[in-house]
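Supplementary Methods S3. Complex input for the L-homoserine-bound model.
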Amino acid sequence: MQQIGIGIIGLGTVGSSVIKLLKKNGSLIAERTGIELVLLKAADLRNRKDIAGKAYTKNANEVLNHPEISIVIETMGGVSPAKQFVLAAIRNGKHVVTSNKELIAKHGKEIFKAAAANGVTVLFEASVCGGIPILHTLRECLASNKISEVSGIVNGTTNYILSKMTNEDLGFEEALKQAQQKGYAEADPTMDVDGSDAVYKAAILAYVVSGAHVDPKNIYKEGITKITKADIEYAKEVGYVIKLLAIIKLNNGELEVRVHPTLVPNTHPLAKVSDNYNAVFVRSDAMGESMYYGLGAGGDPTASSVMSDVIELAKKTVNCGSCCGPETYKVKEKKVTLKKVEDIKGRYYLRMETLDKPGVLAGISSVFAKKKVSIQEVVQKESVGNVAQLVIILDNSREKDIRDALKKISKLSTVKKINNVIRVGAN
Ligand code: HSE
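Predicted complex, serialized as structure tokens:
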């Protein structure tokens, strides 16, 4: 039986689960692949002898410099020192598997360049949607397809919060506390609720689909902190559920990448994805519509994705010695134009408070009409005093026109407050 030496840096939830999975299913992997994966070194500053046994070391260099380790797994998270370790592994001629979304989203370009120069491969399936094999699916199973859209619920914490607010009438804070207790949230949950975690995943998905490295800083981002129970209720009444979506669209060399709360029609498959589950909806020319669903966080699901990359690299190493090199990841780097969010066309949900008297709606609709923005639906909620709650759904319009119109509407004497503006999507 061929043996392949592996090493791990970072023995937190994911790294520990990788070791446990290897112990549990190592012989099954050997049976299926004819390769024995041998854990030679596992590094963490915290004592993890209980998990890694005699492979345990405090010193990451023992992984990076080990002559018999062909594949280094990085499960530390964060940029520093993970980046230095990954680059050192590459320089030492080792393939790398990482679950680190921030590292790949921010520094993928530099890392892949270094890997190509050193004839090794970096794989990162676990960096997006934990256990869902979405990157393999996009780059291999759909390799014959032109992919025009990838829309995903890629953050379990926010999906859990929105689901609890929608289905159990929980408040935001209470739902967030539950998500943290269940271990879905990042160490700093701001990264989840402000959309940053989803932005990293969107950048990686955009790269796999388009070959373009999009700097996360250039991705439009809105989190879920402004979503209220009122929005969730009103959205429900007009047939939608609110989800935080990462949306990537690619048409004629023009790329859209954005993360924001979205009103998803109840009839769309993403609307049914609840609790901490993730799902990625893909539109491509040959396959049509398809959706990939599962757990996007947690030790075991994420370890499953890490191991799929390790097995892929181990098989190639055995089949072609050390020559499998940079060709393994077949995304060709491309330059595409990133569409400005102001130019994106879409439908919108508005909630506003206005005076309850004749002519108010006429005033609002005339501003929209001047901007050629058409109103699809208006619902007037019960008035309190002489203040009415209006919910308006706008038809497909350019974001800049909506923003300009709303600026004018907010200054009308009949409009007290624009409470929220949420994009309607997944259409
Ligand atoms: N905090 C992330 C989530 C974990 O809630 O989905 C996986 O990246």
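Residues 130, 155-157, 184-186, 192, 197, 296-297 surround L-homoserine (CB under 6 Å). The two ends are 51 Å apart (CA to CA).
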